[in-house]
Each structure stands twice: as C-alpha cells, then as structure tokens.
C-alpha cells in the first residue's frame, strides 16, 4: 500500500472541500478509502497505508482461509456458512478499499468538479435549481446518517453484544472434541493462534476481532455513501439540464430583455428577430457545455466505482444466500431457544442489510439511466421548428451526446439497474438451494 502514499498537502482546494461536503466524503476519509494527506492527517494515513490496512486484511484473509479449511476437514456446515458469508465480505471490501485508495486522484477530481458545479449558465441560478441541488445534498446526508446508524447497530449487535454476553456467562469457547478448532463464540468465527478458554484470552479475541470488524463495517458503509453521493450529484445535474432545456424560450427572452428592454408579451414573431435567435443559440450552447461536463463527470464516476460495483455484485449473491443458510441451519439444529432467537435475529439483520445495500446500488444506477433518457425528450421539446438552422444543428449535436448510454456498470459487464437486482436475487436463491442440497 505504500505506493499510494502522497506528499503532505499544504493547502486545501475550496471546490474540493465543497464537493466533499456535497457527497459526504468525510465517511470515506474516516474509513480510510479516501486518504486525506493534509496537515497532521498525513502522518496517520501514512501509518494506515503502511501498516494498519495491509496488516489487518492480510491477517484476516489468512485466518478465514484456515477456518474454511478446518470447516471442510470437520464437515462443519454451520462454520462453513459463516466463513463463506463473512469471509466473502472481507475479501470483497479488501479489494474495493485498495481500488478506491489507488483512485484517489480521480476521486479528488470528482470532488472538485462537484464543488465547482457542472453548469455555467449566464443567468443566475434559479430557485428551482437551488431546490434540486439542496434536496440532493440533504438526501445524501440523511442516507449517510441513517446507514451509519444501521451498520453500527448491526456490528455492535453481531460482534459486540452477543459475544460479550456469552463471555460474561462463562461461555468462552464453542470448541469440543468433535468440532472444528474454531471458536464461534467470539465476534468473528476465525482461527486464532492460541486457545481461548478463559476470560483473559476471550477478551483478547473479543477486542482484536471487534475493532477490525467495525473498521470493515465503516468501509462498507463509506463505499455506499460515496457511490450514492456521486449519483445524487449526477442525477441532480441531469434534472437541472432537463429543466433548463424546457425553459429555453424563457431563458432566451431573459437574455434578450437584458439587452433590448422588457417585452410585454412573448409572441411567435420573436423567432423572426435575429437578436432573439442569437440569444437562443447562446442558451443552447450553454446547455451543450453543461451536458458535456455531465458526461465527463459520469465517465469519471464510472472509472472510480466500476470495479467496486463488480466486486460487490459478484459477491453479494453468495453473502445473501449464506446468511439465509446460516439462519435456517441454526433454527434446524440448535436446541437452545435463546440461541435460536438471538442468532436468527442477527442473521436476519445481516440478510436485510446486504439486500438493502444491493438494492441501493441498483436503484441509484437505474436513476442515472432514467434521468439521462429524459434529456433526449427535453431536446425534442425545444423550439427547433421555429428557430434557425444554427439552433437546429446545436440540437442535433446535443442529441448525439444524449445517445451515450449513461449506465453505471461493473466494468462494463453488469449494469447497475433494477433488472440486475432481480438477477442477483435469483442467483442468491440458486446458491441457497445448492447449499441446502449439499447438506
């Protein structure tokens, strides 16, 4: 990870700071997937990239592999289900976090573009446009807070409350002579280099697994917040572009009146006025520039989130199916009612969280596609029939831009859409049936 370390930043870019606020990038900075090398933070992230991130992920990927091997050796189906679910999450977000860190320069550019704004209209920003941008910022903020509460609740319940409750009751280990040597009573069902059979070793395992586990939860949360924040800025600008195109005559009239005086009534005869037509052409030119900036912003987003979408889509089906499998297995084999209730609740919560996570990736990807399709309709609704040939040529240029398939995808392989959501849910049920059949 040392190759991603930058020199200490000596000043802030105002546009980048605004962009960070708009997309709630502070969560990505906190999670370590978007390092901040300004001031004292430089020293922390040097340590993080040199030691903390590679050390923790290397260790936990190794112990999950060892736990999986032990589960196969003892044919412990419950352990295999847990390791497949939690281990898949670890591997996926190890790769995703490394990719985001490697793309820091592109993320910086996205922050500056979002902070500066993608439009550059000659008229002042309208109240409607301010409302759109404010609603996108507020929506991202509300999601960031809500998802953080949800993920903190899941992690503290799963890795915090239930293990410590067992420990305080003296249940330090689940290992017996007939089971795999993996303790399922600690926060994570992974191999440890020592025997956990007393309070001291239990507490060591508890804290050395709880803290990295919470760090990984923060990475999962930050990836989704960053994705949603960027999608919100993209869809917001597409909405502004559509509204601006539909208000072209009014914008042209505003520019005309600024130079030639107030017009009492808008009449079709204005389209015969050479100066009014020039104003219309200036307005459509501003729209084309805005559209071009939106396309640049989209392509930059795709280059940043493409791999993360691929990794998440590839593994989420397995995560959902193994969570459901673990829940069914505990309900079938466990005799202790309390354990059945608590574990079923935990795995149901995990099943819910990762299904919601997948849904959000697909839903916001679909919104980007749908909003882009509205641009073509808005272009057709412009007064190209009444305007001159120069205006019509500009409309054709803008239509050629709108033909770009603005679909966020997993490296061009799978689109982030509602159709993909259904496909992955179907795949999850197929995985679940396979696990049940192999029991």
UniProtKB/TrEMBL annotation:
Residues spanning the membrane: 43-67, 79-102, 143-164, 304-325, 345-364
InterPro entries for the chain: 7tm6_olfct_rcpt
GO biological process: signal transduction
UniProt entry keywords in alphabetical sequence: Cell membrane, Membrane, Olfaction, Receptor, Sensory transduction, Transducer, Transmembrane, Transmembrane helix
Cleaved signal peptide residues: none
Main localisation: membrane
Source taxon at top rank: Eukaryota
Membrane topology note: Multi-pass membrane protein
Subcellular location: Cell membrane
One Pfam family cited in the UniProt record for this chain: 7tm_6
Example of a GO MF term: odorant binding
GO terms for cellular component: plasma membrane
Family (UniProt): Belongs to the insect chemoreceptor superfamily. Heteromeric odorant receptor channel (TC 1.A.69) family.
Name of the protein in question: Odorant receptor
